[in-house]
Amino acid sequence: MAVENWQDFLKQTDGRIAELRPGIPGVMKGFSEIAKGAIGTGALESKTKELIALAIGVAARCDACLGYHAKACIKYGATREEVMEALGVAVYMGGGPSLMYAAEALSAFDALLEDEK
């Protein structure tokens, strides 16, 4: 899927996720704790972990993952060059389908970075 407006897409996705919260509160709380534990600084800093998450989003072909992790890459100070290298690894690992999603991930990063300005 080609996302036309990443901010709108993420707002829609946030709304859909919000509908899940009351129905599966334990799962949502657990997922939030996993995310905090996975992205928190340890041997790898948060920026590196978000670059990995973005690459996995490409390999898993998860549109929302591209937007959320591109936004987090920006939050943690990733450069476009760092994003490009992470996307290169995703393409290496996932072949042609990952190449198509890498293009979408770069679109998400560029659009969301522009929105930050």
Automatic annotation (TrEMBL):
Gene3D superfamilies: AhpD-like
All copies of domain Carboxymuconolactone decarboxylase-like, residue ranges: 25-106
GO molecular function list: peroxiredoxin activity
Name of the protein: Carboxymuconolactone decarboxylase family protein
